Amino acid sequence: MKTLWLIAGAVMSAAGGSAWAQSVAECGPDPVASYVVTYLGEDRFGVAVEHAVPSNRWDLAFFPLSDRPEGQAESVRDLSAFDANGQPVEIAYVGEGGWEIDGQGAVRLSYTILADHGEVDWGADGPGKDEVGDHFDDSYVFAGHAFFLLDWAMPRCAVDVQFDLPDAWQVTAPWPVENGVYRIADSWSLGQNLFAMGEDAARTVQVGGLNLTWLMDKRLGAITPQVERVMAILPQHYRDFWGQAPGNAFSVFFMADTMSDGGAFYDSFAMRIAVPLNRADEINWSHTLAHEVMHLWNQLGRAQGRNVPELEWVNEGFTDYLTIKMASQAGILDEAMTEQRLANLIRRFNLARTLSPEVSIAAAGQDKPANWHLIYGGGGLAALFIDAELSRTDPDRFGAVLRDLQANAGDGYTFETFMDRFDGLTDGLASQVYDWLDMRPSNAEIVQRLGRYGIEAATFGMDEAYVRFEACGDARCAPVFLAAR
Fold first, then answer.
1. pTM of the predicted structure, to 2 decimals
2. Using CA atoms in the order 177, 148, 88, 64, what is the torsion angle rounded to 10 degrees?
3. Architecture in CATH for domain 302-476
4. Are 105 and 154 in contact (CB under 8 A)?
5. 202-297: which CATH topology?
6. Structure confidence by residue, pLDDT tens digits, 159-213
7. How many CB atoms lie within 10 A of CB 49?
8. Domain spanning 1-200 has what CATH number?
9. Which tens digit of pLDDT belongs to each residue from 64-107?
10. What stretch(es) of the chain map to CATH 2.60.40.3650?
């Protein structure tokens, strides 16, 4: 499970500091850029873009692979640029998914996208096709940043997109549309979302204050009831916990693949699920699906629309723990699976002692792949211990604290501002737990602390961990902060 690497390094360096803080309130009524997408046949799409003012650089996200060193850029063909007088200007590929123009820049681009993304094994040493693109059944799914060349330094104002597609085709996207024009209020939302084009019909459900629209690869049709159960139950529990819906419309895309994983975007996310389908993998993908839906709510570790590396343990670890908590309370997880999920948090943290021995939990986000176990295990245990301690006096206090943190996030937290407010709301408990975990407590210390909260645990080495809830009459009972509501 992963949230999207929002923008590759080359894009971020091109964007510059001033554009990041651009607010919609400073935008005029007209779009800063307009795109027209045309299906050309034979897995090819034409894209034309016109800018309100000249631009000098455009980017795609950059996920290089050993056998595809320029990543997504290798799908771009016939790129041309034109100045304000309609005269062609020279545009050069500068590497890492970027193109540049010298001089006064260009106001119009045209290019062709070869929809070959689904033929690439992006999961081998890359992000997975859930964060790039796929072609299944009669649909083409793309991450916006793999399809639309974007000037990330332009104001974060509205962009328009129109689609010129065959009559039987439809567009599945989280953007509002009126009279055939998709008006996207924040230009970054164009790149940081998934969309699909094709003949396949999407499904929409209304739950938890959301319109959830999903498109599913027909090879996954057998798991539709399980997907519907998760989507019909959990969003309402998430809304009850967070106090509100995170938005109005979200799009979800399910792709068949050789492994199960997911990627979250601004108002959409993708799941790839291993085929052939099997019941054991359902344990994996159902949790991943619930985790990705939780990302729509948990925005505590993001600022200005991007993940804050020093808060990646909150982005991922808190999201994973809250997914376990809500799924347990909603009855999606039974008691035995809830225990196993909690044991996974302990196991990951134990593995981090060996794999990330000199890395602080906050610094782990600077290299997420290398410190994956510390981010998920450390962040997950931090959320568990804080929730468990607060629940001694009030089982709902942890939720109230997170709602306060979210409501007062403003443009987003740094590690310091996040911990300051967290400590203020928990009488210093947040830092006490964080500092304790950051010192890498022993297995015995973790077991002892869990025992305070009605969780019996045992470990062996760094890769075995077992959890059981304490006896409650003739059965075992989840502690109050995990018990069904």
1. 0.86
2. 180
3. Orthogonal Bundle (1.10)
4. no
5. Neutral Protease; domain 2 (1.10.390)
6. 999 999 999 999 999 999 999 999 999 999 999 999 999 999 999 888 777 888 9
7. 24
8. 2.60.40.3650
9. 998 899 999 999 999 999 999 999 999 999 999 999 999 889 99
10. 1-200
